[in-house]
Specification:
This protein is of the alpha+beta class. Helices cover about 50% and strands about 15% of the residues.
């Protein structure tokens, strides 16, 4: 039992560290290796895919060198990379260090798979604890934090992981290939839907608003402990029997389908269904060491005619010496040859499963650059998980779990329950000071929260905005939970730092779009999906009304125009101008954002034709992109003639690939 518990704990810690590395490596593909919407998506996808293909050689390496040497060395490299990523200054060193950690993590998984026939408890615990901690940290991971608390907790996790890896473990028995095959797909679905705290909070924010919009929620992380508890309990309690076996796969498919519908109000049920269904599917493959009347049923559908209970302890396998041959003469018929064969199967299974992970991630997120429908990707991956789970032979009696299901679930769920109580802040707006004479407006394309160096730079973004003392902030390229960008709710994190509640309008999908943050109460929010006209990434216009007190109202419209290939965003600009002027209905109006057009362009002229004024004209030329060498004037603020602009500025900084633009507007006399 001690060996099983040690293996489970070490595997769980390794999964947590590996996910931390992934949350740095994945964004680096589009912020360091390439640039989203400019570097060909095919090239970035090939870069990502190549490392996972390379990991297919790991099982052969394990067979030649031995399980223990390969696993220990890979664990040390993974742990060192995880710690070093907190201190890297970003840029190419960060990308290659994360890549080294990724490759080490993949090799470590293959090594652990070769020596472990029952991975489900460890995988499930790692995924659940990672989600709980991610929520407790308000989706801002330790790897991006440089304070002493982050270093202390990271060092503790790494130390425990290395100690667990260094200690001897029991020999592995047969089976486990199916469970290891699901490691990659489970990691993908957990990060995208089932155990994604940012997605859960985003879904809650849609439930407190209407008309397809989202607003700052109270206790937005409340679904997370439910998802974590449902997932972990389903994974650890063992597979149900007879017709109950189909309930988990059905729930997983239902959750994936709800997610694929791209509706914000369906995200919370999608998360809960996918979490329970994913845990149940993992449980269906947890058959290594189980017995029935035919003998020991393995995870690949075969049986051990020895009929022994608890084959993980009794069957021959890969011993402490690390080499498959060390198990000769022990265990089931076939001895060392059979053990080596099962070790190879499990190694190739986990490597293939991780290949599914990267193929699914690349296929899903490349669609936003290439313009094809991607809703089928999570459904297909969920279908694959369901098929593999249902194909596992039902067993009569499951071997004792290394973790008590109810107590383990209670502990992890309690940790997750702290998140909505401690990590959720709800900024409040007010207008008791009465209508102001002036409004300061800031418009900022925040590139999903990542600076030019590829680091998640929430404090840098907040400082750049805060220095302008804004009344209202209009944000573009707001990401609220893409796995590709690390699964952060960038909008909520910035709103907390600025002390300003938000309204969010979805553009590409329910978690990527534009936002308005305001110190003044906001009423009557509306969104207009913009015509794509060949642009692969969706666009919208988000309109809100600022209630400045005493009946004074100002309309504000935030947008991010997406030009078609080799064209200007003329059609979208005309649609935004028409929508904004109709919405304002004669009230003072502000339209701002990343418009991807320059003064003198036809698209730029659409706003002037609608009667709007360039609020930045006094400072022209006012280049905003790229941030380190601004040459393009593509971020703008337009206002109705009754508003008088002054002090336009684009303060320098590299917290994003754009510079923010700020201007003070004097309201018309009452």
């Amino acid at each position: 039992m001690r060996y099983r518990l040690l293996t489970t704990g070490s595997l769980a810690l390794g999964v947590i560290l590996f996910i931390d590395v992934l949350r740095v490596w994945l964004p680096g593909i589009i912020t360091i290796f390439g640039q989203a919407a400019s570097t060909p998506a095919e090239l970035m996808g090939a870069f990502a895919l190549g490392w996972f293909v390379l990991a297919l050689a790991a099982p052969a390496l394990v067979r030649r060198v031995g399980v223990r040497p390969v696993t220990v060395v890979a664990a040390v490299v993974l742990a060192a990379a995880r710690l070093a990523l907190t201190a890297t200054p970003g840029g190419r060193p960060q990308l290659w260090l994360a890549t080294a950690g990724l490759l080490a993590g993949l090799v470590w998984l293959v090594g652990v798979a070769a020596g472990t026939e029952r991975p489900v408890p460890g995988l499930a615990l790692g995924l659940a604890v990672n989600a709980a901690v991610h929520a407790l940290l308000d989706t801002h991971d330790l790897v991006w934090r440089g304070d002493w608390v982050a270093w202390l907790l990271s060092a503790a996790a790494v130390t425990l992981f290395l100690l667990g890896t260094a200690l001897p473990t029991a020999p592995a028995g047969p089976g486990g290939a199916r469970a290891w095959l699901l490691a990659g797909p489970a990691l993908l679905l957990a990060g995208m839907v089932a155990l994604a705290p940012a997605l859960a909070r985003t879904g809650t924010s849609y439930l407190v608003a209407e008309d397809g919009l989202a607003r700052s929620p109270l206790l937005g992380l409340a679904p997370v402990p439910l998802a974590v508890a449902g997932f972990l309990l389903a994974a650890l309690t063992g597979p149900p029997r007879r017709w109950g076996r189909v309930l988990g796969p059905a729930a997983l498919l239902a959750g994936a389908l709800l997610f694929a519908l791209d509706r914000g109000d369906l995200l919370v049920p999608a998360v809960l269904l996918a979490a329970v269904g994913l845990g149940a599917c993992l449980a269906l493959t947890d058959t290594a060491g189980a017995t029935d009347t035919a003998g020991v049923t393995d995870a690949a559908g075969g049986t051990d005619t020895a009929g022994a209970t608890g084959s993980a302890d009794e069957a021959g396998g890969i011993g402490d010496a690390g080499r498959p041959e060390a198990a000769a003469g022990a265990g089931p018929p076939g001895g060392a040859t059979g053990s080596a064969r099962w070790a190879g199967r499990r190694g190739y299974a986990v490597a293939a499963g991780m290949l599914v992970f990267v193929l699914g991630a690349v296929a899903y997120y490349s669609a936003y650059d290439l313009g094809y429908p991607n809703g089928a990707v999570p459904v297909v991956v969920a279908g694959l998980v369901a098929v593999v789970a249902l194909a596992a032979d039902p067993v009569g009696r499951t071997a004792p779990a290394p973790l008590p299901p109810v107590r383990t679930t209670a502990v992890v769920a309690t940790l997750a329950l702290l998140a909505p109580l401690l990590a959720d802040d709800v900024p409040v707006a007010g207008n008791r000071a009465g209508p102001p004479e002036r409004l300061t407006v800031v418009a900022y394309n925040i590139r999903m929260g990542f600076g030019l160096d590829g680091r998640l730079d929430l404090d840098g973004l907040a400082d750049a905005v805060r220095r302008q003392a804004p009344d209202v902030v209009l944000l573009s390229e707001v990401d609220r939970g893409w796995l590709l960008n690390g699964g952060h709710d960038t909008l909520d994190l910035l709103a907390d730092r600025l002390g300003m509640p938000y309204v969010f309008g979805p553009a590409a999908d329910p978690v990527w779009g534009d936002a308005v943050l305001s110190r003044w109460p906001v009423t009557d929010p509306r969104t207009l999906p913009l015509p794509a006209v060949g642009a692969p990434t969706g666009a919208q216009a988000l309109a809100v009304t600022l209630d400045l007190g005493d009946g004074v109202r100002t309309a504000v419209v935030s947008t991010h125009l997406q030009p078609p290939p080799d064209q200007g965003p003329v059609v979208q600009a005309r649609a935004v101008a028409d929508f904004a002027t109709r919405y304002a209905a004669g009230r003072p109006l502000v339209v701002a954002g990343d418009l991807n057009t320059e003064p003198g362009d036809e698209a730029f002229g659409q706003f002037a034709e609608a009667g709007l004024v360039d609020a930045l004209a006094a400072a022209r030329p006012l280049a905003t992109s790229p941030a380190d060498d601004p040459r393009e004037q593509i971020d703008h603020v337009f206002v109705s003639p009754g508003l008088t602009p002054s002090d336009p500025v684009a303060p320098r900084g590299t917290a994003s690939d754009h510079l923010p633009v700020a201007v003070t507007l004097t309201l018309p006399p009452r």
